[in-house]
Amino acid sequence: METIVSGARPTGQLHLGHLHGALKNWVKLQDHYRCYFFVADWHALTTDYATPQGINQSTVEMVMDWLSVGLDPTKAVLFRQSRIKEHAELHLLYSMITPVPWLERNPTYKEQIKELTGKDLSTYGFLGYPVLQAADITIYKANKVPVGVDQAPHVELTREIVRRFNQVYKPIFPEPEVLLTETQKLPGLDGRKMSKSYGNAVFLSDAPKEIDQKISRMVTDPARARRTDPGEPEKCPAFQLHKVYSTPDEIAEVSAGCRSAGIGCLDCKKIMIRHVIDDLAPFREKRAQFESKPREVEEVLRAGNQMAQKQAAATMIEVRETLGL
User: Fold this and answer.
1) Domains (range + CATH), the chain
2) What pTM was computed for the model?
3) Which of 36-40, 73-77, 179-183, 198-202 has the lowest mean pLDDT?
């Protein structure tokens, strides 16, 4: 059975972008691969190093969300990155052989430097987080990494680091392949990628009324300044949610209505909003059960930490012997 590794930063509530960009895919993958899914709490410090106080609670909340969408700790290893010190050791060794220009050309690095203007991101940790990411992936000798298209360059950098390590020392690590998710990039309320950092997210834990209010305000095709103006669905961020949630007949209906101005933007969105609320109903029910038993979530992490640490330790024994350390 091939190995898959993926993680998520515990920076707060999970949203629809996480659900369709990663979590639903993880639930499918756990039946077909040996899966390691981790809480990337060290990665959370790359942009939020000044406010680490909420990481512990956010970790529990996020894993609670994972379990509520269907991740099964009997099928996948769920663990916390910072509890496995071998990640940091391999990151240090990789940093010795990774050229700085490889990191500076990272498109996500450039994008976040531009978008997150309220934070000081001129740190080594932020520049070098793809090296830590490479350690996260390869310490379990992952064969595939499930990511959205925007994260694919990180996996390619991991492959470059692996090739360099294997050439300089000896072949230890497989070059992980990208496993693109079906829904690669979900738009947020303002049309940019959905992100808590951008303040444009619909959270999984939002109440139905709040979901309705948020998506009702979502930006649409700018050509439809007035109700009588025709538009183009493919230019409308809200239409991308229709593609995820609405039926083929509904998609055809709103597409024709948009192009002819036969339907208003709000009425169009209301069709999709009903599906979003209904789709999250089972999640809300399961999450309420976990909220009443938070210790179960902590026990899942403890057990996962032990399994992950065993594999990571075995890998690092091999690495140290190779480097003569």
Assistant:
1) 3-186+294-323 (3.40.50.620), 206-287 (1.10.240.10)
2) 0.88
3) 179-183
